[in-house]
Amino acid sequence: xxxxxxxxxxxxxxxxxxxxxxxxxxxxxxxxxxxxxxxxxxxxxxxxxxxxxxxxxxxxxxxxxxxxxxxxxxxxxxxxxxxxxxxxxxxxxxxxxxxxxxxxxxxxxxxxxxxxxxxxxxxxx
Length: 125
Known about the structure:
single chain; alpha+beta; 2 domains; three-stranded antiparallel sheet
């Protein structure tokens, strides 16, 4: 399965919206027809250190469920860089035009640059 940056962003935003009183983020918080996709991307976020939690897997090592407790500092920083729809869409367009692959460091860097230009143009207006 390919990494889907829109799914990653969706998961991180869902984390931020989650009420801590309701418990950890779980697979049941997402549409069941894309369960494997969400589990796969949560596992990537765990590996990247952007969230804290755990995966529950079957004997075939296929993700069955997850309990994701919270964003890490790095997770919050990354989400801050990509949260805005305007910044996110411009970031994706930048990668499309350049033909470069979207890596974590590049996405964060480009999103931060896009946000800085957007902020400057807003202040100058």
